[in-house]
Amino acid sequence: MDTKVMQKVHTPCVSKIC
């Protein structure tokens, strides 16, 4: 997953990205 996708979906802390 990309960081941009994480921001859009707002995943619960995945790959150290909250």
Architecture overview:
- This protein is mostly helical and 18 residues long.
- It is 39% helix and 0% strand.
- It contains one helix and no strands.
- It starts with a helix and ends in a 9-residue tail after the last helix.
- The mean pLDDT is 69.
**Quaternary structure annotation:** single chain
Percentage of residues in strands: under 5%
Q: What is the H-and-E element order?
A: H
Which structural class should the secondary elements be placed in? Answer: mainly alpha
Report the radius of gyration as a whole number of Å.
6 Å
Calculate the terminal CA-CA distance, rounded to whole Å: 13 Å
- Could you give a short account of the major beta sheet? none
Query: How many strand units?
Result: 0
Number of helices: 1
Mean pLDDT figure: 69
Q: What would the principal axes of the Cα set say about the shape?
A: globular
Unreliable segments of 5+ consecutive residues? none
